[in-house]
Design a protein that fits this description.
- The chain has 163 residues and is mainly α.
- It folds into 2 domains: 1-79, NADH-ubiquinone/plastoquinone oxidoreductase chain 6, subunit NuoJ (Four Helix Bundle (Hemerythrin (Met), subunit A)); 124-163.
- It is 73% helix and 0% strand.
- The protein has 6 helices and no strands.
- Helix 1 packs antiparallel against helix 2 (26-46) and helix 2 runs antiparallel to helix 3 (50-74).
- The radius of gyration is 21 Å and the shape is extended.
């Protein structure tokens, strides 16, 4: 039963990612990106990475995607805007992408993968929370200071200059 859910989530993720790339309407592309990001979070759940799945939903769906949708919605005359697909090296990009795809499939099917015994995964949220508040407290606080400095710098750069 879980294999059916995995295939369904993977198919939704791939289909919506293709829709993001090939849609000429920015609104449809942003909505398809919503399904793609939720699908990636679902795939993280199947990997027993529940903390990464929750982070995916909070950061990317809750923050980045909402920012993109606000940017699209607040732009004037966005409903009539279409993205042109007139890039010239499209054929060469397709050929290179196909060769990379063949290379990846060759590696996947010719590698002898280690198959060990099945392990039962436990929740990672408790372990990660404990490590952040004990072992990795200093790097966590340094990262928060770097993000605060980046936020202050972006606020300073976005201000209008007076005089």
């Amino acid at each position: 039963m879980s294999e059916v859910f995995f295939i369904l989530i993977a198919a939704i993720t791939i289909a919506s990612a293709i829709w993001v790339v090939f849609s000429s309407n920015l609104i449809y592309s942003a909505v398809a990106l919503l399904f793609t990001l939720f699908g990636v979070a679902g795939l993280y759940v199947f990997l027993y990475a529940d903390f990464i799945a929750a982070t995916q939903v909070v950061v990317y769906v809750g923050g980045i995607l909402v920012l993109i949708i606000f940017g699209v919605m607040l732009t004037n005359k966005i409903a009539d805007n279409r993205i042109s697909h007139s890039s010239r090296p499209r054929f060469m990009a397709g050929v290179i992408s196909f060769f990379i795809f063949v290379l990846v499939m060759t590696v996947i099917f010719t590698t002898t993968w280690h198959t060990g015994e099945e392990q039962i995964a436990t929740a990672t949220v408790n372990t990660i929370g404990e490590m952040i508040l004990t072992t990795y407290l200093l790097p966590f606080e340094v990262a928060s200071l770097v993000l605060l400095a980046a936020l202050m710098g972006s606020a300073l750069l976005s201000r209008k200059k007076h005089g």
